[in-house]
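Predict the 3D structure for this chain.
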Amino acid sequence: MHVPTAVRTAALGTLLLLATACGNEAAPAGADGPIAVEATDDACKVARTTSDTGNVTFEVTNKGTKVTEFYLFAEGDRILGEVENIGPGLTRRLIVEVTDPGKLQTACKPGMKGDGIRGEFTVSGDGKKSTDTDAKLAEATKSYQRYVNSQADSLLTKTTEFVDAVKAGKVEDAKALFPVARIYWERIEPVAESFGDLDPKIDGREDVIEEGMEFTGFHRLEKDLWQDGLQADSATVADRLLTDVKDIVTRAKAVELTPVQLANGAKELLDEVATGKITGEEDRYSHTDLWDFRSNVDGSQAAVAALRPVIEERDAALVASVDEKFKALDELLETHRAGDGFKLYTELSEDEVKALAAAVDALGEPISQVAEVVSR
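Done. Predicted structure below.
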């Protein structure tokens, strides 16, 4: 199936991030304003490797030949921020609220694989948070955390049912439960993905997991159920999936989110659609991509809904634009309903895929402005 090139490069990635130095001489920049980052195939030049706590804005430009990614890690490789799919010649603006002083680590990933070219970034300051002084921002983060908690509980419940079906050899039951369990994962994917040690174990596709890593999780079981048949170790893989999901549910409920994270997460979820779901690459064996597509959009809407009082106060026109574009995408998705779920992705025509891609692209533009509005 042909997918427009514009769709594959639509992941603008306006995600939370600090500036980084990936082991090379820094590019010039003033003490204030955006921090310039120059990424190449074998280096990453960052204007500053220190910052005060608070909102930080920077510009990442890919001057290499490979698509690249940019990450900020906290202790234990927890991902505080990331921007993905930065194509050659492209520049992305990223905003982050840095709440805690200390030593962090950054990584540029040319080719989007490996541990990346890493460097240190130091944050100093009093650690005050925007939610300490803005009641609406504080309520937004509390509201979204309640949403995350409810989705995490459902993720655990439905994953348990899915795992039980796999272990009992009930193939048709497991197939029916696979996209249902993933609804809750996909809705809170930015939070879940922030735990870089667990995400590839739970949701890694066979072609993108790192060399030396075992292919496990949802997509390994998807392959077993739809392509290879249940294997001798399928039950073991299922048990491991449930263990990892329990771990990530605990972590997701404990993580402290910032308002900018919510805004960036809303955009990141649309990027997930643009780079995985719209291409049919995510659920390549079951072709249940539209379930994931719908869930990513649900999660993006939830993040925007939590921030809505803040955005309305600061930029009412942006709210109207976001609402209009969400409505158009919702209506288009509903045309592909089949019973309680959705059509298989392989049943869509090329024109239908193009229409979905255009709707995602149209929504992505106003959503990419939310982080800047929230960080004012």
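Confidence is low (pLDDT under 50) at residues 1-31.
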